[in-house]
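Appendix B. Extra example for self-study. Work through it before the problem class; the solution is given directly after the inputs so you can check yourself.
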Amino acid sequence: MNRIIRAHDNLREASGLPAVLDAAYNAFEDMLPVIRAYDDPADGTFAAFVMSAASVADGRDAIAWAPSLPPRRLGGPPAPGEEPHPGTSAAEAAGALAGLTRLLATRLAQAARSAPDDRDRAACADAWRHARDIHALLTGTEP
Amino acid sequence: MTSQATFGDLLLSARRQLGHAGGAASGTGDVHEAAHGMLRLVTVMARYPGDLCSPVEAVPRRDWPVLHAWTRASLEARQALASAAGLLQPHAARPQPDSMTDRTFAARLETAAVSLAAGRDLLQTHFAPGPRGGRRPRSDWALAITSPPVTRALLAELASMAQQIAPQGASLALSPDARGTAGARRALAAACQWLSIFSAAIATAHLEEPVSAGDRELLLAIPLNELPPRRLPDGSEPVGNLCDAVTGSAQRARHAAWITAAQATWSPGTSETSLRRLSAASTLTSHHCEVLLRSLAARPAPPGAANHNVELLRAADAAGRARAGWLHVAKTLDQVTTDTPGYLSQSADEARNLALWTGRLAYASPQWTLVCGPAHPARDPESLAPEPDDVPRVVAAIQYACETLTQLARADREHIRTAVRAGRILVPTRSLPDGYDVPRPYAEAPPNRIDSLLTAYQHAGEASATVRDAVARIAETTQAPSRMLTAARSAARVSIGGSRGTALDRAYDAAVADERRDQPGPVERILRDLGLTTRELLSRGAAIDHAGEQLIVAAIGKPPPPEHGRRNAKTRRQSAVTAALISQALTSGDPYTIALLHSRTQRQREPPEPEPEPGL
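Solution. Structure tokens for the complete assembly:
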């Protein structure tokens, strides 16, 4: 879950369009291994996790179309992957992921309104829709 | 299971009409009106073998002995029916409305003709016209319809009808109480003779290769190729309706996969959104099938079927492996993208609907959805199938779902392969190692990612096929209505036997071969490559290709030439000049051509016989 906490912090602190796009891209990217680590068929959240993963990957790819996205990850390569935290249940992971998508939706909505380039705005709007979908899948409510 | 009309409904309706002992039996009625009714019926009947034997219709009669018994019978049937129609034509008189009652022989013939024509229309819904006059399959049933078992059963049914009509028509023609000219009576009697000849031709083929009860059952079960309406759950559906909804949404998803199979080079439906949604939905559908199979296994086994629950548990395990396979596809798709983001294909949308309906059937909560919530208990086995008689409908729903999953895996793998060739499978540049310097957000996916993806689809398809086959066995033992799916697949396999791979591979190969038959020949292709679009020139090119094919077939069909100084058929096929034409002749699908080429190859392996002297 450290990965999600880091992504949350980076996104909250990102300043300027390229940094927001970079943090949002990384946030989507960092959510994938966490979701995949918890998609256990024996758990009641299985369906939501499986469906969410598709939206997470779509959200990441939507941001990649933004011209202002830096070509390389700011701040160096990502931290190595992690296994599910032994003390964290799938429901708790879903809660953390939902928190991140709520922030993603907020930052992407702001970027979609303020970016000067049409293509940046379109990319942010697309990614915002995916963040909203993920939140709905994980919590049953819109962010 | 579903309320779809079947070919059997229409065929049996026609049979019922002809089975009544009306005016013909009593020897009363108008011979001219009967000739009209019989002409209509015979004309419709002739169209069926016309559909079946169009590739071989040009085969000269002297070559019929090399044909398969049923192919020969279909040609003889067509000729007999054409002869009957030719005799009836000059004497047929449209019935007077006031003279027609439902019980006259003429009226029953007219009604049967309408039913039979509707039956042919129903079969045609599984085909679409090809760009060059051929037929292209529009459903997976199309392969079964053109399969030898089904065509044999169809011809046998028509012959049986002819056998019903012939004595009634002959009786009317000879009756002193019937109205009509002597010429009309003679024509009707002679036409009935031709109907008897038709029956005899089919009976001969039947002796050589009998039509089984299963073949007939499959023929009668062919459904109208009409998509059931899309439905959304409201939470009030009883289990029976949920089963129907699963079946309907499975059919819709399968149909969508079939339709989009040939569009991957350009279709916006080949998008990462569609691929990801479909794989996620298929993961869930596999999971729901596992839950359902385990619920059924928790019921008491039927008397005398001790292995029933073991089979259910084996199928459930297989469904679990299919779920894992689909989940692996979904994870692999995380690493690639496409050039058309955001578009959701119909098959992905229908696959999601299938996941929703199977979930509603699998779980106890009537409000179950794909979104997060507390863990839902599976539906109670007694609620899923309260009585033993309720088991087959649940098995049928599962079988339809598994059949669809198998097809979706195959279809999307083909989409990916085609999209790769078109350079449409991409990766985000940021995901590539630093050594890559690509000044765009996306780059073509590296080969290792493509290989991983195709392998993942292959494994998911194989795992889905395994569970499908396991459920098919259960459907057979429980007499589930869906067992016709298995029979149709077996028939299609016979139709396209000889190819390698799984049954589904072969089905697709057949569809591709069918598509290829509509491709231009070498001369026409060269003209098109030169950029010529004039219809007249292209038609001439096609005619030259056709003439070339015929020439090669005729040349190969002649007695073998001497060994010395001449080139045999094998050598001819090695010629670069003729290879394209021979290949075209083979891909035309003409059974006669194939029989000749193959029999020629056989003869090459045998010791040469002395060439007959000219004139002997």
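Self-check: The CA atoms of residues 249 and 353 of chain B lie 7 Å apart. If your reasoning did not lead you there, revisit section 3.
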